[in-house]
Structures are given as structure tokens and as C-alpha cells.
Amino acid sequence: MTPSLLTLDTPAALIDETRMTRNIQLMQARMDALGVRLRPHVKTSKSEAVMRRQLDAGAEGVTVSTLQEAEACFALGITDVLYAVAIAPARLEQVRALRRRGCRLGILTDSLAGARAIVEAGQRHAEAFDVWLEIDCDGHRAGLQPDDPKLLQIAEVLRAGGMTLVGVLTHAGSSYELHEAAALQALAEQERALCVAAAEQLRAQGFACPQVSIGSTPTALSARDLTGVTEVRAGVYVFQDLVMLNVGICRADDLALSVLTTVIGHQPEKGWVLVDAGWMALSRDRGTQRQHRDFGYGQVCDLDGTWLEGALLSGANQEHGMISFAGGAPADLEQRFPVGSRLRVLPNHACATGGQFDHYHAVDATGALTAWSRLHGR
Amino acid sequence: MTPSLLTLDTPAALIDETRMTRNIQLMQARMDALGVRLRPHVKTSKSEAVMRRQLDAGAEGVTVSTLQEAEACFALGITDVLYAVAIAPARLEQVRALRRRGCRLGILTDSLAGARAIVEAGQRHAEAFDVWLEIDCDGHRAGLQPDDPKLLQIAEVLRAGGMTLVGVLTHAGSSYELHEAAALQALAEQERALCVAAAEQLRAQGFACPQVSIGSTPTALSARDLTGVTEVRAGVYVFQDLVMLNVGICRADDLALSVLTTVIGHQPEKGWVLVDAGWMALSRDRGTQRQHRDFGYGQVCDLDGTWLEGALLSGANQEHGMISFAGGAPADLEQRFPVGSRLRVLPNHACATGGQFDHYHAVDATGALTAWSRLHGR
């Protein structure tokens, strides 16, 4: 039997292929217009089918958040891989092995301790690692300030140790907290300017530092000018989600990932519909909780994807979801959403929801379904 | 090389076997003393090694939250399985197939629509399904009030259709919101009394209704008397977690699940230690957020499990965790927690954190590690 949205086991992660393709083309076109390479962050989809479409559209190389992702990408023939989490010394042996097999795997550090560990491992194995230095452009996570003297000290440790300083890298993760175009444009410019400034600091001291890598989906889609930047990394743009809708950098009909679910019961007095998608499907991500519109655990849509205004997955247990209705449930709740009928839920955060599944089902423009596996491992 | 906590790839899910064994023995002893069977909910661990220890200690049968769990348990030779989520009609074919292969699989409903679908599928395949009726004892999720006339109507539909009414079932999930012993004892009694009342309603109308199944970890550990109850279901007790600590039904040294993580950097000005355990490891569960003590994404411990008072995983990105220190970070932050050193994080919610991993590493009393896989599938 050909699977359909009516027969697929639920909960299932659906990808609207038309929307995803549009998201990929839009981001690629913007990066092309700004004159930079796009290096998609594949932690969002962790899917070969999705990555292939990104690369076919013009992306160059991939960004990963674990070495398992790097291994899986390399196994698929993708050789240009940037591991954009500060390297733990114990991982250098695995990095070296991947590089020996032909993977151009770049690694990241923002500390003298990290640089020294890289040099030690590199010298022990006669391996000149490709190293990026992490810059902090908005105070939200890791990285060095562009004017931190440690930046030059780390570069010097790497140079003296025979390692290759590829470039500087930053991520304006605080962009997720914004929702106004002007603020997003300002943060995009800050991300660009501070990362370029770090590269200039290094170049002024005689370090080549050829690459400048920046990126987050909101800043990438808000930037007006990327002078001095060589590549942009972004991940969630490929699916978009409710957090990004609240940020204001996509429209409701750009959201490509949804969770297919089945109605399993009702609490008519409470106005609840119970479904078989809980947090094991949607994840516990409540990324819209602190935004201007809180979508609970997700926005509920009809089977065909039509947004049901006011219908939210307001509660989630492991395999139960509770749908409630702002302004009151329909009087014919049990007839409108009978036991066994199906709905879709748009997630807060596509990366987190995708992470709950082993595979996706892509829905093409004709409605045909294709299973797309996720990469093996974390 | 024998794996150790210093060489294991991180993040990793560790089980302290001594604590887990104590948790299993304590719950079993309480159920034995109260004269009821214990049917553990295996959605918490989804691990054969853990289930075996529960069954070896005296548990009878298992509770599952998906049919994939039921399939996996049956494949391991566990034949007494209760699927404690209201059945979606499309799943009845899979239920029937499992039963035909010898699995005593019980199913649940709380609606006339569900009962009619069960009867229809049962009659089509000459299968007398074992059906439980779900009772709502605290308004938190699914189920019928004990005095809802639909209870008898559903029982009548099942009887007329030749199905087997096994019993009534409830789950006092609101117990997670409590934290005082008296309130927990009262809710445990409410859970017992209302579920027994539902059974009595049915028996008064001539339905046998032999079984009365209740349970949640907090009520199971708080109940003083379980007269009329035949079995108790509980899940998270096997690992316990910070939510349960806040509820007050375990001690800090009962928490058996933790996430091993590696330090990857620092932000000394902010007093942060950065680690490689983010929400992909801990999950996005913030279950302690609304409790009297908020642990962020988890309580940080030294490698040996010693609780570092005031050290919380206060922020989590996909593969990054930010540790901060209440009352200020140690002055020697980078020396105290050097890059490459390891810590453990106790999770808010063991079910959600376990769900982020493919396997566990059990640590026995001697410190030896054993990999324990999780069940295949969801």
C-alpha cells in the first residue's frame, strides 16, 4: 500500500518539499546577491536528501555540530566540513583520522588551552589542523572579543605549532530574541563588523586569516551588506519554524516541517482534543514562550496544512498532546475532530523537533510521500 | 581500551546502577507491602537491562506508551503488556497481530468512538481485545469521570461486541505539581478512591471489571492504603530526577541518571563554563521551572557525582551548555574546570533526557561501565 497522510504511522515528521525548496532558493539567492558562500548548518535536518538539495542549489560545504555528523557527511562524499563547536581535546584523534581519510575538516577554538591541545595533537601526528578562531559578537555564548589580546596569543600558539589558521567565525545567536527588522539589520551588521574586525586584527599582526564566517538564520536573512565576509552559516532557514515566524524573517506558509498526529480522545468540558503527539514528537522546546506570541508546543493545522487559528498544542506529555482553543472550543468538538482523524502541528523549533525523529516523510507538490532518513548517530 | 568516565565519548547518559537498584527495590517493597502488583512504565528507560532488573525484583508485566515499545518488549519475551495511551483505531491491526503472536496486550479507551472502533476491528478479525477504560482522577489529561454515564455505555458497547473489559485505569499526573507529603497522600487516596469507585459503578451494573490500575511515581511512593487496587504503574522512580526531588519523594542521592559532559571553553567575565551537553543531550525539559527550586537545564556535579552547590546548566543550545554559578563563579574558573575536564549533569526529567540517547552507560559499584542499549524505535 502506498503510504499516505491517512495511513502513515503517527506521530510522523512531515517536510513540505515545495516550501523547503523555496526556503533553500531564497537563502541561496540572498547569499549569491551578497557575494558570499553559503555553508548550511546541517544540524537542523541531519538528512542527506535535504543536504543534497542545499548543495545542488549552490551551497559550498557544510557546518556540523558533532563529529558524528561530520563522519556521516564525509561518508556521503561531502569533504568540506566545518565542526562549529569548540573542540574538546579528546576529539582530536577522531578529527585527525577523518582528515587522513580525505575530509577537509575544520575545527574551532577560543582558548589558549584549546590551541595548545590542538598543537600538541597536531605535532604528535604530524597533522596541520585547519583551525578557526571563535569570535563573540553578541555575548550570547562562546568566543573571544575581537580586541581580546588572547586572540593574537592563540593565533601565535597555532602558528608556532605549525597549525593552519583558516579564519575567524562567529554566530549571532541572540538574533533569535529579536523581532524588528531594524534591530535584526543592526545585529547583522554588528555580526559582520566584529568578525571582520577580528580578522583585521589578525592580519595586522601578519596572520593570513583568509576566511571570515558568520551567520544565523535571522541575521543572514536581514543583512544588507557582507563586505569582508567570505561565508555564511545558517541552519533553521531550511525548514523555518514558529520561533522564526515570531522573529519576523519568514511567513506562516514558509514553515516546511510539521508533525502529523492522530486524535485519540477529547475532554469536551475542558474544550480539549487529545492527540498522539506529545513532547517525544514535538520536543520540549518552548522557544515561543518568551516571544510576543506564545504558541505553546505548536500551532495546530488541518491535515492539509490549513492553520487553525487559535488552536494550539497547549500541553504535552510523553506521548499525549492536549489541543486547546483560544476563545473557546467548537461546540461540535468531537464531530469536528473525531477519534482517528488527523491533524498537523507546526513546531516552535524545527531543529529540536527534527531531533526527535529517526526519519522524515517528504510531501511533494503532488502529495506523494517519500521517507528521508536522518543521519546515523547523534 | 576499557571505557572509563575519562574516555567515553560525550555527552553520554550514565546510570548509577547502585542508585537505580535501590530505587527499584524501594518501590517494589512498597507495592509488596501494600499488596498490589507493580507494572513499571518502561517509557522512562526503554532499556532491556533496566526492565529485567525491575521484573527480577518482582514487577509483573510492563506498561508502554507506544506500540513500538510493545513490539520491543514482546520481542524480549515479555508477554504481559499494557499500552496505556488511548488507542487510535488505525493501530488495532497491529495490536491484533501482536496478540496473535502471543502477546497479552491490553489497550485503553475513554470514548464511545474508541469502543466502537475496537468492537468493529475485533469482530472483523474474531479477536476479543483486552480493553481497559481510562478514568480521570485529577483533571490533568484524559479519561472519564467515575460517574460519567458514558462509562457504562462504553462498557456495554464492549460487552455487546464481545470484547473483554479487563479493568479501569487512571494516572494522577497532577502529582508532579505537588511538593508536600500531606497533599501527595491526599492525591494518592483520591487516585485510588476514584478509580475504585469507577470499578464499583461497573460491577454494580454487572460488569466483572476485575482489575484496577492506578499510578504515578509521586502517588505510588505516597500512598498509605491501596484497598481495591490490583496494580500500580510508575515509571520515573527507576531513575528519579530533579522534578521528583522537588516533589519531595526522593533524595538527591537517589538520582540515578546523569549526563557526562566535557568542558569546551569559558567566558570568565560572565562566570560561565561551556560544555558539550546542550538540549540535544539534556532535552529541552524545564520541568523545575515552575517548582519551588529551578534547576535550569540541570544540576552540575563533579565527575564523581558530587553535587556542586549553585552550579547549574543555566543555558542550552543544541550541542552547547552554559554552566553558571549562583553567588558568583570561582575566581579560578579556568583552572577549576579546565578545557577537556569532565562533569556530570543531573536532569530535570529522566524520561525526556533518556529519550535523547540511543544507549546508556551503566556505572556499577566498582566504577566499571557497561553499555545498555535502548529499545529500537520510538
Task: Explain what the structure shows.
The structure is a homodimer of 378-residue chains. Chain A is an alpha/beta fold and 378 residues long. The first copy, chain A, folds into two domains: 17-238, TIM Barrel (Alpha-Beta Barrel), CATH 3.20.20; 252-348, Lyase, Ornithine Decarboxylase, Chain A, domain 1 (Beta Barrel), CATH 2.40.37.20. Chain A is 31% helix and 23% strand. Chain A contains twelve helices and 17 strands. In chain A, α4 links the parallel β4 and β5. In chain A, α5 runs parallel beside α6. Chains A and B meet through α5 and β10 of A and α5 and β10 of B.
- In the sheet with the most strands of chain A, the strands line up as 2-9-8-7-6-5-4-3
Low-confidence stretches of chain A: none
CATH topology description of the largest domain in chain A: TIM Barrel
Shape of chain A: elongated
**Biggest interface between chains:** A-B, 55 and 55 residues
Helix vs. strand class of chain A: alpha/beta
- What's the number of structural domains of chain A? 2
Oligomer: homodimer
Q: Give the biggest beta sheet of chain A.
A: 8 strands, parallel
Count up the helices of chain A.
12
The proportion of residues in beta strands of chain A is 15-25%
What is the share of helical residues of chain A?
Answer: 25-40%
CATH superfamily of the largest domain in chain A: Alanine racemase
CATH architecture descriptor name of the largest domain in chain A: Alpha-Beta Barrel
